[in-house]
Write a structure and sequence with these properties.
- By secondary structure, the protein is α/β, with parallel strands linked by helices.
- It has one domain (2-134): Rossmann fold (3-Layer(aba) Sandwich).
- It has six helices and five strands; from the N terminus they run βαβααβαβαβα.
- The protein has helices spanning 15-27, 35-39, 49-61, 75-86, 103-108, 121-134, and strands at residues 2-5, 31-34, 65-69, 90-96, 111-115.
- A five-stranded parallel sheet has the order 2-1-3-4-5, sandwiched between helices.
- It is globular and about 40 Å long.
- The protein starts with a strand and ends with a helix.
């Protein structure tokens, strides 16, 4: 199962965080996909916002699950979550403990994980992996 990992575009400044989250997803048994890493290579590639979102939609279609970190206000990432929801993809919302999320996020999320340390996600994602594979 392939996970589309949403991330904010910060011209490569958040490369380490993206790589860490991708590594955690792989360690949990999933195939990882990061639009910023795999399509944009941490650079601004799309100068037309419509083309950017068209391509993001196409890539979400190729994935089974979307993972979104709701810890900070996710504008573009929330749009990707909406696209995934409209495509009936599974959505995993993650957030640091204590983060408040809206009912709309709860409404689109198949799984909600609160974590203290990013490394804690491995256990929860492995549980989701097992659960989803047992339903196949």
């Amino acid at each position: 199962m392939k996970i589309f990992i949403t991330s904010s575009f910060k011209n490569g400044e958040n490369r380490k965080e993206i790589e860490k989250l991708c590594e955690i997803v792989r360690e949990s048994g999933f195939e990882d996909f990061s639009f910023i890493r795999d399509i944009e290579n941490y650079q601004k590639v799309f100068h037309d916002p419509k083309e950017l979102m068209k391509r993001a939609k196409e890539e979400i279609e190729k994935c089974d699950i979307l993972l979104i970190d709701m810890t900070s206000k996710p504008t573009g990432r929330a749009i990707e979550a909406g696209i995934a929801f409209a495509q009936n993809k599974k959505i995993i919302s993650i957030m640091k403990k204590g983060t408040k999320i809206k009912d709309t996020t709860r409404g689109i999320s198949d799984f909600i994980i609160e974590y203290e340390h990013i490394q804690d996600l491995i256990f929860y994602l492995q549980e989701i992996y097992i659960q989803l594979n047992s339903n196949l």
